[in-house]
Write a structure and sequence with these properties.
The complex is a heterodimer of chains A (736) and B (155). Helix content of chain A is 27%, strand content 22%. Chain A is built from 17 helices and 27 strands. The longest helix of chain A has 28 residues. A 7-stranded mixed beta sheet of chain A has the order 10-11-8-18-15-16-17, with helices on both faces. Chain B folds into 2 domains: 75 residues, Beta-grasp domain (Ubiquitin-like (UB roll)); 66 residues, DNA polymerase, domain 1, CATH 1.10.150. By secondary structure, chain B is an alpha+beta fold. Chain B is globular. Classes of the chains: A alpha+beta (736), B alpha+beta (155).
């Protein structure tokens, strides 16, 4: 099989302290602003930051984006191989390492193809042209007569020179110009094909594929102990008892931060239990009352912004509807708790982490511990799928705290299941109020208000230190403030501005400035709930207008690509205009263009309602997606279908349980998710547009899926549920 | 204390307390990556191994209780060069997003194919009901197990 290599698994090589060898500071003419470069070339401007040609003709590709199970590293390898005209098997990928790769911030927001992919495409085209120019001189032939096949440059007379022979002369320590046009789509041989994922074979055969699998010489094992509730202080604990336990090397206490290091993993786990048993805590904050949660959240201080406004008179006699929708706190609930390995040696801290952003993590650990960023190296190693900001960064900080206590020995820190469930930053609870007016089959008025806590409390904040463990140190650090994010990306207001062609609309984002429950980025940020609300309400308006939901949407869309995905999904599902549910079974549609600028996706869901038990099943889902130019069709399908199924789990099953005293969801029994017997069959239609820009798609499906399920439930039963998830209690109440 | 184990066909001796969960012995003493820690509570299935051919949750199995039994991990099924039909089918179907649950899924599927070499889709769904996948790769996993069954994926 022709697959590129992943050297991040070669952990011993990573240990070798490879120094920065690409040129960090591009040559910029004094007094001139540097030219705007596309994608992440703008912030990482030299060619050798991205690509190296090795003497054996192989290529090493550097990217700041990291593998989260979304297949990005394979897709980026395809883009680089395509432009360089080398076989995929000759590409080695290095990703997410503050000592070696470009700084591309977070791997988040479905932006990796647009940012890193664009940089690699432009850099690849430019390096190919440079190599052809060198070959032209060497062969004494005109550059435009030369052809490249599999990394070998051929002259018309049959002479040839391989990339490897040119590498000594090829100066890639130069700023990219982005002037060399990349290959036209019609010539693509690797991009657009379903290349098998680089990382999958090792994962299926027991290779060292995850940070959890990292074993360093002399490595010891750590666990941490969290307070019983947010903000509680540690008054006392039984240090002597724990220190006397077998294998215990160190008990680490700094303020209310508590952890233990032991020789063996099970010894650390046992020591943690004894620490918990005898620890005494006081204080801490009260959580909202779950029965009045949404009212309480909306009564907190908020910063309100009108983010979209278009004015037109509402005709007299229009029918006016209002509705309020809710989405609860929902967990990332990664399949494994967070893990990190840290080592402090000769004053240098190395952290292996499944963080989505090794550079912001490094900067924030440095501030939290009073170190210089140059004395810290953060290296990405894969973890379980994260779907946003979970415990990964916090675990990296915890590992660093423990590593400082056993100077010179690497510490593998693994959170326990309840650490992850109770302490990860959840997707924020949200309330959406919508008011709309219809007249003559058209929407003539639309007001949308969304209330939400912050969806971005990641490391990298300029004012705060967003690493949870640091908030409990004796010298306690503070998290950053909630912040608005500019449209069209937005945060809690992501996808809040309707894309439908309404003559009058007003959208307001009420950013809740307090954090009674810890929240941050969960896949889609606010888009999941906003699209659920917008698309549910579109069905309510369609019903009020007496028009089929598919036809009603198409009547409010001008853009051809938007229309095309809705028409494609309706065709795939054999949607019948005006089709009705039968009290038990029904179908519904949901649509959005993610972030208003990324992939277009439409979803039709079929539900089956057990009216007496209140159980909603979703046997089938159809989707249609336009992500512009498709890099890897199988990878895209995998991401879309994964988003559909995860959203079905959120929508039907998931909410974080808590009471005034603390979080109650601590394992899979009290945070149940979708299981194998209830997984829908999913059929996906991809619309490829090879001559259009590639659009981020990894997060596109969840919002439309939630709406399609809610609309299908309403179509089946004639009753609408506006508060997620669709629990048996809510279903039975709606049908009563 | 020294405990003698039969893992993937070889006899291994480890120095661990008998109440140590098998999972940590496999991962840390025998350096086998296949079985994964997910919950430590038998709820997720990431740690599934075969004990005498039957799926077993290694996160709560005391290592002292399985002396003399045959333990099979993902590594014992096959290798990169000679993958077991289940491993090959998971690769061919690209049945992973993050892939963290895959080892447990494959081991639970191996148990199913031992008991029922020609399962229907509903059998696969039922056999994997207690193995959680968070990425939403379930349909590919089902397809991979059915593909392996067609290729006589018994061990």
């Amino acid at each position: 099989m022709d697959v590129p290599r992943l050297t991040r698994r070669d952990f011993t090589a990573a240990l070798g302290g490879i120094v920065l060898s690409f040129s960090l500071v591009p040559k910029v003419v004094f007094g001139q602003d540097p030219a705007r470069l596309p994608g992440s070339l703008q912030t990482n401007r030299t060619l050798d930051a991205w690509l190296r040609i090795n003497a054996d003709g192989s290529v090493t590709v550097f990217t700041g984006k990291v593998e989260l199970g979304q297949g990005i590293v394979t897709a980026l390898a395809q883009i680089a191989a395509e432009e360089l005209e080398v076989p995929l098997g000759r590409v080695t990928m290095i990703s997410g390492d503050t000592g070696r790769t470009p700084n591309e911030g977070q791997t988040a927001g479905s932006q990796s193809i647009e940012q890193s992919g664009t940089a690699l495409r432009m850099a690849g085209a430019e390096v190919r042209a440079l190599l052809i120019d060198l070959a032209a001189k060497k062969l004494g032939a005109a550059a435009d007569t030369l052809k490249v096949t599999d990394g070998v440059i051929h002259a018309p007379d049959g002479r040839k020179v391989g990339y490897g022979e040119l590498t000594a002369e090829a100066d890639l320590k130069r700023e990219a110009t982005a002037k060399v046009p990349p290959k036209p789509a019609a010539q693509h041989k690797i991009v657009g094909k379903s290349a098998p994922r680089i990382d999958i074979p090792a994962k299926m055969t027991g290779g060292a594929a995850f940070v959890q699998d990292l074993r360093l010489p002399g490595m010891v094992h750590g666990r941490v102990v969290r307070p019983p509730r947010y903000g509680a202080r540690l008054d006392s604990f039984d240090e002597a008892r724990v220190k006397a336990m077998p294998g215990v090397i160190a008990v680490v206490r700094d303020g209310s931060f508590l952890g233990v290091v032991a020789r063996r993993e099970e010894q650390a786990i046992n020591a943690r239990l004894v620490l918990i048993e005898f620890a005494k805590w006081s204080g801490g904050s009260e959580l909202p009352d779950p029965a009045k949660m949404y009212e309480q959240l909306m009564s907190l201080r908020s910063e309100d912004r009108v983010i979209g406004e278009k004015d037109a008179p509402v005709p007299v006699g229009a029918k006016v509807l209002e509705a309020t929708y809710h989405r609860p706190y929902q967990a990332h609930a990664a399949i494994a708790p967070s893990c990190a390995v840290a080592e402090l040696k000769d004053g240098k801290l190395t952290v292996w982490t499944h963080s989505q952003g090794v550079f912001p993590l490094r900067a924030t650990i440095a501030r939290a511990l009073g170190l210089q960023p140059r004395d810290i190296r953060c290296i990405h190693a894969e973890g379980p799928g994260c779907y946003g900001h979970n415990g990964a960064d916090d675990a990296a900080f915890d590992a660093a705290m423990l590593a400082r206590a056993v100077n010179g020995r690497p510490v593998r820190l693994q959170w326990m299941r309840d650490d992850e469930f109770k302490w990860e930053p959840y997707g924020a609870a949200m309330t959406m109020k919508v008011k709309g007016a219809v007249a003559g089959g058209r929407v003539v008025g639309w007001t949308f208000d969304v209330w939400s806590q912050s969806h971005n409390m990641r490391p990298g904040d300029p004012d705060g230190i967003n690493l949870m463990g640091s908030w409990y140190l004796a010298d306690a650090k503070r998290p950053g403030p909630a912040r608005h994010a500019a449209q069209p990306n937005g945060a809690g207001d992501r996808n809040a501005i309707t894309l439908y062609d309404f003559p009058r609309q007003r959208t307001t984002h009420h950013l809740i400035m307090e954090n009674p429950v810890r929240t941050s980025a969960l896949r889609t940020l606010g888009a999941y709930a906003n699209v659920f609300a917008i698309e549910s309400f579109m069905d309510e308006l369609a019903a009020a207008a007496g028009i089929d939901p598919v036809a009603f949407r198409l009547a409010h869309i001008k853009d051809e690509r938007e229309r095309a995905v809705i028409e494609a999904v309706a065709k795939a599902a054999a949607w019948k205009p005006g089709e009705k549910g039968d009290g038990r079974r029904g179908r519904g549609i949901g649509y959005a263009r993610y972030k208003t600028v990324a992939a277009y996706i439409a979803v039709i869901a079929e539900v089956e309602v057990n009216r007496t038990a209140g159980i909603v099943k979703v046997p089938r889902i159809w989707t249609s997606a336009d992500a512009g130019q498709i890099i890897n069709p199988d990878g895209l399908t995998n991401q879309i279908e994964g988003g559909v199924i995860q959203s079905m789990s959120w929508t039907v099953h998931e909410h974080v349980r808590f009471d005034r005293n603390g979080i109650l969801s601590e394992d899979w029994m009290n945070y149940p998710i979708l299981t194998m017997p209830d997984v829908p069959k999913v059929e996906t239609v991809l619309i490829n547009r090879p001559n259009e820009r590639a659009l981020g798609a990894g997060e596109a499906a969840p919002g439309p899926t939630a709406a399609a399920i809610a609309n299908a439930f309403a179509a089946a039963t004639g009753r609408r549920i506006r508060e997620l998830p669709l629990t048996p209690e809510r279903v039975k109440a709606a049908l009563a | 204390m020294a405990i003698s184990l039969k893992v993937n066909g070889a006899t291994r001796s480890v120095d661990a307390e008998p109440d140590t969960p098998l999972l940590y012995v496999l991962r840390n003493d025998l350096e086998l990556n296949g079985a994964k820690y997910g919950c430590g509570l038998t709820q997720c299935g990431a740690c599934t191994v075969l004990v005498n051919g039957a799926a077993s949750r290694s996160c709560v199995t005391p290592v002292g209780s399985i002396e003399g039994n045959e333990v099979t991990t993902l590594e014992g099924l096959g290798t990169l060069d000679k993958p077991h039909p289940l491993q090959k089918a998971f690769i061919d179907e690209q049945a992973a997003q993050c892939g963290y649950c895959a080892s447990g899924m494959i081991m639970a599927a191996a148990d199913l194919l031992n008991r029922n070499p020609q399962p229907q889709e509903a059998d696969v769904r039922a056999a994997l009901a207690d193995n959680l996948c968070r990425c939403g790769t379930h349909n590919r996993i089902i397809r991979a197990v059915l593909r392996a069954a067609r290729q006589n994926g018994r061990i």
